[in-house]
Amino acid sequence: MRNNLLFLTVLTAALAACGGSSTNAGADTAAPTEAAISGAVSGMPTGVTVLLKNGDVETLAVTGGGVFTFNKKVAAGLAYNVTLVTQPSGYNCNVLSGSGTVPQGVTSVPTVVVTCQPAALAFANFNVGVTVSGLASGQSVTFANGASVLTVTDNGLYLFADNYAKQAVYAGRAGGYEVTVKTNPIGQTCTLTGGSGALSFGDFANFVNVQVSCK
């Protein structure tokens, strides 16, 4: 009898151990996932840029239409919301299927559709942005373009709030721009590529993307 009781005790303990191991394995396979938010832009000619943003997470420039993918992924269960930063000069664009919640277990949400068509009334405006790389964690860098000031605390694409007119004169030129570093990050120096120039009426371009390298 004592031998039978001992056998049952050992068997019960072994089954409990197996059950615990199975539960942990299931938890491991259900680890949270992240998905890239992507889609396509149609109706835009070569040289014209659509500026998109995913909530407050990231801004993305898509030039000439085609497929796009945001660099920063969104975790399963969290929301994404792709919208236009502004209407591109001379065009009206609409975002379809731009918002939702990332499902569990997927690595891509490729459903965003941006359709554009020429506007009935076109204004010759353009945006100016900076794409920052090399900025150390916890640091910030401040830029100026005329009276417009922009402070950046992370790497990526960021836009000056103003919408510039090609007919306006700045830096001695119609449609001119001149981006400078107002305040460097502590312990780093940021250099600009393509920080000054001008856009003319005959130029389809509606976006200036200044490259910034911080070291």
Quick overview of this protein structure:
By secondary structure, this protein is mainly β.
How does this structure look, described?
The chain is mainly beta. The protein folds into 2 domains: 34-118, Immunoglobulin-like (Sandwich), CATH 2.60.40; 125-214. The protein contains 1 helix and 20 strands. It has one helix at residues 2-29; strands at residues 34-42, 49-54, 58-63, 66-69, 74-75, 79-84, 91-96, 99-101, 108-118, 125-133, 141-145, 148-152, 156-159, 164-165, 169-170, 173-174, 176-183, 190-193, 196-198, 207-214. The strands form 5 sheets. Strands 1, 4, 5, 7 and 9 form a 5-stranded mixed β-sheet that branches. A hairpin with a 2-residue loop joins strand 15 and strand 16 (173-174). Residues 1-28 have low confidence and may be disordered. This is Lipoprotein. Residues 1-27 form the signal peptide. It comes from Rugamonas apoptosis.
Features:
215 residues, mainly beta, Immunoglobulin-like, 2 domains, five-stranded mixed beta sheet, 1 helix, 20 strands, flat, disordered N terminus
Write the layout of secondary structure elements.
Layout: H1 2-29, E1 34-42, E2 49-54, E3 58-63, E4 66-69, E5 74-75, E6 79-84, E7 91-96, E8 99-101, E9 108-118, E10 125-133, E11 141-145, E12 148-152, E13 156-159, E14 164-165, E15 169-170, E16 173-174, E17 176-183, E18 190-193, E19 196-198, E20 207-214
Parallel strand pairs: 1-9, 10-20
Antiparallel strand pairs: 1-4, 1-5, 2-3, 2-6, 6-8, 7-9, 10-13, 10-14, 11-12, 11-17, 15-16, 17-19, 18-20
